[in-house]
Write a structure and sequence with these properties.
- The structure holds 2 protein chains of 2 kinds.
- By secondary structure, chain A is α+β, with helices and mostly antiparallel strands.
- Chain A has 3 domains: 4-30 and 445-576, Aldehyde oxidase/xanthine dehydrogenase, molybdopterin binding domain (Aldehyde Oxidoreductase, domain 4, 2-Layer Sandwich); 44-62 and 64-144 and 189-279, Aldehyde Oxidoreductase, domain 4; 282-443 and 581-725, Aldehyde oxidase/xanthine dehydrogenase, molybdopterin binding domain (Aldehyde Oxidoreductase, domain 4), CATH 3.30.365.
- Chain A has 17 helices and 31 strands.
- In chain A, the strands form 7 sheets. Chain A has a 7-stranded mixed β-sheet with strand order 4-6-2-15-12-13-14, with helices on both faces. In chain A, strands 8, 9, 10, 17, 18, 19 and 31 form a 7-stranded mixed β-sheet that branches. A 5-stranded mixed β-sheet of chain A has the order 1-27-22-23-24.
- In chain A, strand 12 and strand 13 form a beta hairpin.
- Chain A starts with a strand and ends with a helix.
- In chain A, 63% of the residues are buried.
- Chain B is α+β, with helices and mostly antiparallel strands.
- Chain B has 2 domains: 6-79, Beta-grasp domain (Ubiquitin-like (UB roll)); 87-166, Orthogonal Bundle (DNA polymerase, domain 1), CATH 1.10.150.120.
- Chain B has helices at residues 24-31, 76-79, 87-95, 104-119, 138-144, 155-166; strands spanning 6-9, 12-15, 50-53, 56-59, 72-74.
- Chain B contains 6 helices and 5 strands; from the N terminus they run E-E-H-E-E-E-H-H-H-H-H.
- A 5-stranded mixed β-sheet of chain B has the order 2-1-5-3-4.
- Classes of the chains: A alpha+beta, B alpha+beta.
- Chains A and B meet through helix 1, helix 3 and helix 15 of A and helix 1, helix 2, helix 3, helix 4 and helix 5 of B.
- The complex binds FE2/S2 (inorganic) cluster (2 copies).
- One FE2/S2 (inorganic) cluster is lined by residues 39-42, 44-49, 59, 61 of chain B.
- Chain A: Pfam families: Ald_Xan_dh_C (PF01315), MoCoBD_1 (PF02738), MoCoBD_2 (PF20256).
- Chain A: Residues 38-143 form the Aldehyde oxidase/xanthine dehydrogenase a/b hammerhead domain.
- Chain A: Keywords: Molybdenum, Oxidoreductase.
- Chain A: This is Xanthine dehydrogenase family protein molybdopterin-binding subunit.
Chain lengths: 728, 170
């Protein structure tokens, strides 16, 4: 058995179901849990290095133009100030996810308000912060800069679908819907601000940073600095939330590196909270038009989804709003297209579930309008429109659990499939109603390597530069390896987040778990080959449990005093093109809406999800809870608000950008729908980090309508908008 | 600031910093290496920096270290260790009441003091009346923990973990 697999074929053998340890798929608690709850898990800014300097970024007060002069002398005489760094290597933006090369340089060329332009370094944080406010900067500012995505021409995006004649289908259909929704920008707002400590020993640079994808970040940072990758080590053992914002190397990491190399002392740079919101990625606002045509039976004959998003000139990323619309519902006449407006707001990039996070809620609202027109239960409308194959390119689905999710979710929630009309229930000042939505999120896997070492003492060590951003990577790797090698979780040590280890896939796009656990699985298969030879059985027959061959020798005996190591290497092959692979699900929500203020409170939410093999029921459920919580924010409160005059982000902190707090989140039920998807990965697992928010805001919006009769077409559905749409 | 001025952190006396601009949070993180207390916003908006001062929870980013002459500060490191965790720390692990873990020390410090506030009969927006005994109800916990943001969205599990420790309401 080779430890390398390029997966061209589905794997439906499900080896993991036939192992004996019984630890994978359980509710094992996080193996790093005690470090987190006692405050001893080190995040990027928390390594204690002697003689460490503190840096604070200085950001632009113009929206577009050029820094013409930085007057370092204006601060160098202040107490403790060591240097003003304005090297051309400083980066103006964060790298997009998987870029693998330097983001925009130099920082002196300003593309958006709040862009980092320099770094002030001092002996203490207080001194650096003070000096950063006093640094004199001169600019040449451009006039006629566009900030409003609706006020500029937009560029069409590649990848449009045009099939049949949608306009004709709309005209002919007994039921049709033509509606337009808007969504505002979202911020990842991870709790740990972006931070880095860089240390240069004259030859090698070590950077402790808060990053999701070290496998790409190392190239991005090396390219930014003009340094060879083998002179660079990145460490991200604990990441205080990412949600896309830490996919690419960001400005503080480059700035700390440049300063450390220039000054010969370690330098720590942590972004201020306002800087995190203003210079890391925003999710683009969107405008989305839906045209849905259906027959008497509610079956779609036409499906149109056209979206407009925005980004800075030169940025390749465009919020992939249509991603799941391409395959979620049937309809032979199809028009799907996107366009990008070029404006000078901060960089648009990945925020948790790019595309579906805003595309799915809007689509699911349009489907609710259609269900009402057809006089069909909204669950039934979805069930009738699940296609057999990808409706445009005809590829088969790798596995498809939408119907089961709809049915099991409806049952768990207690969904009433009877006739629906708004304002059926009032409790005092509150209208009470329910709504539902489908969930879909494309599944991806990426190339991944992990080394698994069976130690002579009968424990195992897993090493990879893969990260755990709260997703549970540490624990599911321990479980996967424990399952394959017959070890309890406590006997498996997992080391992550260090580029000295084999390259993992990085955490992003929900592909981390399936990819890295597949690499570990392959390493374990190769280890099992050797163990089987030593135990004189076929590998397929080798039963390992609790550190021994069942009824036979212990691992310690088989190892005979020597470690045994294998590097697993997984790569997706033809499966990526031969199948349409996606996680599916369904959301059900009950809300109450205040008839006088328009305030919405979510009372209960159920999510049913099918995402292949569940590696850990506890951490997978947490991912779903997190996604559903984000759904509440996207539905009701989260909106990045930009100043029309200079394009700056006006609500750039956690007091003004409203993420859900504890009291906003009610009881949430999560239902796992049993699935094994052999075309998704050799361990039959798909991603779950994002599916929990891919449609949930739509269920809440539909419940608002069912409660009070307000059809709102703008997310988030703040009280003012609900009130304005509420019938008398 | 003379060096006689001290603050007690987890039972150990520490001289207050010379620079009056140093927040209590930065004193903990930068001067003492007590990085269990987290900085999420530095503006009193997130609760990640919650510590106990004389038994009462506060946002340590919103207070200057020099204001704490003679005070007793307890941080997450003072509540328990990996070898000997507190009941809440254990419950957070058991209930998966976190994901990335960055808000977690603040949540646990906050919950520790919050349960005392309920026991002492301090009312909240979720309370039925302004005086009289308070229940440790789900709604009270949600309201009183709303100053601690968890962007990972672990709220449902945080409430469960706190309830495990507080016991079911009457
Ligand atoms: S860091 Fe103090 S409240 Fe956010
Ligand atoms: S666990 Fe990540 S912010 Fe709460």
């Amino acid at each position: 058995m080779s430890a390398y697999l390029k997966q061209d074929e589905p794997d439906n053998v499900n080896r993991l179901d036939h192992m004996r340890q019984g630890v994978l798929g359980t509710d094992a608690s996080r193996i790093e849990g005690l470090l987190k709850v006692t405050g001893t898990a080190p995040y990027a800014a928390e390594y204690q290095l002697d003689d460490c300097l503190e840096g604070v970024l200085v950001t632009a007060t113009i929206s577009k133009g050029e820094v013409t002069a930085i007057d370092a002398d204006s601060v160098l005489s202040m107490p403790g100030v060591v240097a003003v760094i304005d090297d051309p290597s400083l980066t103006a933006r964060a790298a997009q996810g998987t870029a693998g090369e330097a983001p925009a340089q130099p920082a002196r060329e300003v593309g958006y308000f709040g862009q980092p332009i320099a770094l002030v370094v001092a002996e203490s944080f207080e001194q650096a912060r003070d000096a950063s406010k006093h640094l004199k900067v001169s600019y040449r500012a451009d006039d006629d800069v566009a900030f409003d995505p609706e006020a500029v021409e937009a560029e069409p995006q590649d990848g449009a679908t045009s099939q049949g004649d949608l306009a004709h289908a709309m005209k002919e259909a007994p039921f049709s819907v033509d509606v337009t929704y808007t969504t505002e920008g979202h911020s990842s707002a991870a709790m740990e601000p972006h931070a880095a400590i860089a240390q240069w020993d004259g030859d090698t640079l070590t950077v402790y940073a808060s990053l999701q994808m070290l496998n790409y970040n190392i190239s991005e940072l090396a390219d930014s600095l003009g340094l060879d990758e083998d002179k660079l080590r990145l460490v991200s053992r604990y990441v205080g939330g990412g949600f896309g914002s830490k996919l690419g190397v960001s400005e503080e990491t480059v700035a700390a590196s440049v300063a450390a190399m220039e000054l010969g002392r370690p330098v720590r740079v942590a972004m201020l909270r306002q800087q995190v919101l203003q210079c890391i990625m925003r999710r683009s606002e969107t405008r989305q038009r839906f045209r849905l045509a259906a027959g008497e039976d509610g079956k779609l004959t036409g499906f149109g989804h056209e979206a407009r998003v925005s980004n800075l000139p030169g940025e390749s990323f465009a919020e992939p709003v249509l991603q799941s619309s391409h395959f979620l519902y049937a309809g032979e006449n199809r028009e799907l297209s996107m366009e990008v407006a070029r404006i000078h707001r901060m960089t648009a990039g990945s925020v948790r579930a790019p595309g579906e996070a805003v595309g799915m809620p809007a689509l699911e609202c349009a489907m609710d309008v259609l269900a009402e027109k057809c006089g069909l239960d909204p669950v039934e409308l979805r069930l009738r429109n699940i296609p057999d194959r990808h409706p445009a390119n005809g590829t088969p689905f790798s596995s498809h659990k939408l119907a089961e999710c709809l049915k099991q979710g409806a049952e768990a929630f207690g969904w009433d499939s009877g006739p629906r009309s708004p304002r059926h229930t009032r409790e005092g000042e509150w209208w009470v109603g329910t709504g539902m939505a489908s969930a879909a999120r494309v599944h991806n896997v990426g190339e991944a390597k992990a080394r698994v070492t069976l130690k002579a003492d009968g424990t195992a060590l897993v090493e990879t530069d893969m990260t755990d951003i709260g997703t549970g990577t540490y624990t599911i790797l321990a479980q996967t390896v424990g399952e394959m090698l017959g070890l309890p979780v406590a006997k498996v040590l997992v080391e992550l987040g260090d580029t000295h280890h084999p390259r993992g896939p990085g955490s992003g796009g929900s592909w981390g778990a399936a990819s890295i656990c597949s690499a570990a699985y392959l390493a374990c298969l190769a280890l099992r080959e050797t163990l089987a030879k030593r135990a004189d059985v076929a590998e397929e027959k080798l039963e390992l449990k609790d550190g021994a061959v069942v009824g036979g020798a212990s691992l310690i005996d088989l190892l005979d005093g020597r470690d045994l190591a294998e590097e697993g290497h997984y790569e997706p092959g033809d499966i990526a093109d031969d199948f349409t692979a996606s996680g599916f699900g369904a959301f059900f929500a009950r809300v109450r809406v205040n008839r006088f203020t328009g305030e919405t409170r979510v009372e209960h939410m159920t999510g049913a999800f099918g995402f292949g093999r569940v590696l850990n029921t506890k951490t997978a459920r947490s991912q779903c809870l997190g996604g559903m919580t984000w759904s509440i924010g996207a539905a009701l409160t989260e909106a990045m608000l930009f100043d029309p005059v200079d394009g700056h982000l006006a609500n750039c902190d956690l007091a003004e950008y409203h993420v859900p707090v504890n009291r906003d989140v009610p009881d949430l039920d999560v239902v796992f729908v049993e699935e094994r998807d052999g075309a998704a990965s050799p361990i039959q697992a798909k991603g779950i980090g994002e599916l929990g928010m891919c449609g949930g805001a739509g269920a809440i919006a539909n419940a608002i309508y069912n409660a009070c009769g307000a059809r709102v077409f703008e997310f988030p559905m703040t009280p003012d908008k609900v009130l304005a749409a509420m019938p008398d | 600031m003379s060096s006689e001025n001290t603050v007690s952190i987890n039972g150990q006396p520490h001289a207050l910093p010379d620079d009056p601009r140093v927040s209590l949070l930065d004193m903990l993180r930068h001067h003492l290496g007590l990085t269990g207390t987290k900085k999420g916003c530095d503006h009193g908006q997130c609760g990640a920096c919650t510590v106990l001062v004389n038994g009462v929870r506060i946002n340590s980013c919103l207070t200057l270290a020099v204001m704490h002459d003679g005070d007793e500060v307890t941080t997450i490191e003072g509540l328990g260790t990996a070898e000997n965790p507190s009941a809440l720390q254990r419950a957070f692990v058991e209930r998966d009441a976190y994901q990335c873990g960055y808000c977690t020390p603040g949540q646990i410090c906050s919950a520790t003091a919050m349960l005392d506030e309920i026991a002492a009969g301090w009312p909240s927006d979720a309370s039925d009346s302004l005086d009289g005994p308070m229940e440790v109800s789900t709604e009270e916990i949600r309201e009183r923990m709303s100053g601690n943001i968890c962007r990972c969205g672990a709220y449902a599990n945080i409430v469960d973990a706190i309830r495990d420790v507080a016991g079911e309401p009457a």
